[in-house]
Amino acid sequence: MEFFVLNFQKFMLVFVRIAGLVFVEPIFGSQTVPGSLKLGLSFFASAVIFPLAYPFLGEIPSDIVAYALMAATQAFIGAAIGFCITLSFGIYMLAGQFFTVQMGFGASEVFDPMSEISIPIIGQYIYIIGILVFLSLNGPIFVLKELFLSFELLNADNIFNINLLSSKYGLVYFFVNMFSIALRIALPIAGTLLLVSFTMGLLAKAAPQMDLLMIGFPVSIIVGYLIVLIVLPLMIEFFSDFIDDIFKNIWNLMLELKNG
Questions:
Q1: Could you report how far apart the first and last alpha carbons of the chain are, in Å?
Q2: Residue 111 forms beta bridges with which residues?
Q3: Taking Cα atoms as reference points, which of 110, 131, 112 lies closest to residue 121?
Q4: What is the four-CA torsion angle of 60, 62, 63, 67, rounded to 10 degrees?
Q5: Are strands 117-120 and 109-112 parallel, antiparallel or unpaired?
Q6: Rounded Cα distance, 91 and 125, in Å
């Protein structure tokens, strides 16, 4: 305890960085999670990481303004890591958007309290699977590991490096890669539903007397659910590899920022 008391200023720098991540990342950053729980979790994680991160914090400035700027930079680093994780989880909802209308659920959206937006039912289903896979892989432990590495690799001198945006692991890369990965997740389902729509169009030409509008929606929904169930094992395996790639990319980005 004496160690924490004598190094309280450095401990607060660790605390604000971790709090920045906790308040932004997708699971504990939701408005449904009480603020007291977020602060308690941040304090507990800070107490665990601080003895390991202490050698990388450097000297504490005597000027209160300089110290406040250093604390703000620490919070920005944590929020940036949390934003990358949140952006990666948004891929699951985006994948659901690609085939929801074709499946017949275009008008059925539900409010997601974690992301605080209305998303399609199937998008939320894929999102929940992604979170369960994340938790099953001990995702929070990986987040703590990335936090510890961030103290070793990132500081106020290199966080605002242009590589934060221009790197192939930077934020621009995250945005571009987001659409391609979401398309890869949705392609088996969207492609099958496209074939169903094409078949319905041929039937409409061959038998105009059939009420395909009433038949098409149930067929699309049933086929969509069947394809989701069939590709679910492959989807879970893909999510596992994708989550591993997320943390590798964040580590590579921090390494590039350190090296300039």
A1: 37
A2: 118
A3: 110
A4: 20
A5: antiparallel
A6: 13
State the CB neighbour count (10 A cutoff) for residue 239. Answer: 22
Distance CA 131, CA 147 (A): 19
Could you please report the per-residue DSSP string of 89-113?
A: HHHHHHHHHHHHHHHT-TT-EEEET
> What residues contact 196, with CB distance under 8 A and at least 6 apart?
216, 219, 220, 223
Q: How far apart are CA 260 and CA 32, in angstroms?
A: 39
Q: Greatest CA separation found in the chain?
A: 85
**pLDDT, tens digit (0-9, with 9 covering 90-100), for 189-210:** 888 878 877 777 777 777 666 6
CA atoms within 13 A on the CB side of 172: 7
- Mean pLDDT rounded to a whole number for the chain: 77
Indicate whether 99 pLDDT > 80. Answer: no
The amino acid present at 12, given as its one-letter code, is M
pLDDT band at 111; cut points 50, 70, 90? low
Q: What is the dihedral of CA 226, 230, 232, 233, to 10 degrees?
A: 160
Predicted TM-score (pTM) above 0.90: no
53: number of CA atoms within 13 Å, CB side?
Answer: 29
Cβ atoms of 84 and 146 within 8 Å: the answer is no
- Across 48-57, 141-150, 206-215, 225-234, least confident range: 206-215
What's the Cα-to-Cα distance from 171 to each of 162, 163, 164, 166, 228, rounded to whole Å? 11, 9, 6, 8, 30
